[in-house]
Amino acid sequence: MKRLAPALTFLLAACASGGAAGDEVAGPTVVSLNPCTDAILAQVAAPGQLLAISHYSKDPSSSSMEPEDAARFAATGGTVEEVLALDPDVVVASSFLAPATRATLEELGVEVVTFGGTATVEDSLAQVRELATLVGNEAAGERLVADIEAALDEAAADGPSVEAALWQPGGIVPGEASLVSDLLRRTGFASYGAARGMAQADYLSLEQVVADPPEVLLVAGSERGQSHPALDKLAGMRRESFDTRLIYCGGPTIIRAAQRLAEIRKNMLPREGGDLRPLVTRQIAGDPRLRGGSVK
Questions:
Q1: Binning pLDDT at 50, 70 and 90, where does residue 8 land?
Q2: Structural contact between residues 36 and 117, judged by C-beta atoms closer than 8 angstroms
Q3: pLDDT per position as a tens digit, 203-248
Q4: Record: fold of 9-116
Q5: Under a CB-based contact definition with an 8 Å cutoff, are residues 261 and 255 in contact?
Q6: Which class is domain 159-284?
């Protein structure tokens, strides 16, 4: 399949250096513009099939891929010109792909397949299988599914749930219909937000955390309030960091997220009455800012 205009040949030379491993590939060649599908395709595609990943996956602070995995592939900014220079059979993108970009690629003979976010583990496993089928490597998809299921089995927790608040970037909480909430439930955590009627992307203020702390606060943001010293003085609350890279994508990211949540859950012990509290708690030091829910 050759659809390149002569003016684009220099882009092909520039991009191909990190792309296909050889001239002959058994299945369709793919360019991924979606950071979540990048990580899955990197595991289910055969050598040479995945010509490029999204530029987001090259940023270690936000990528769902490990840096050494992302380094194996070329990356694009998602422009039509960059994609055409790589001459793929299929472009895999998010459902937010600009309609004009999709229309142009399809007019030029490139198949475009889009994927939305996943709200449950089952959704993510289905997406793994769909991508593996797309590249003609169902066996690799089943191996990845088996690895994910094994990690979830290993991370499953017995006993009463721990009430957890996941404090995301921007100070918001996840909704119950989200993949990370499903993972929290599967690893022994109960939703602080749901118990208080909070929905997707509702704002959790520092004042509310101080006045009504969860058993464990999972901090996945870097806003000023999320590192406030008042948080160190809340008796009965454990504070743990949670990598933002573990929040948004499924596939192999589920394995790392489940392992991290299991690690946090293991550090909790039952207290009298069946509730769970941290192994070590901090005592309130008489700070007036911790009274009445007002932090200044």
A1: very low
A2: yes
A3: 999 999 999 999 999 999 999 999 999 999 998 899 999 999 999 9
A4: Rossmann fold (3.40.50)
A5: no
A6: alpha beta
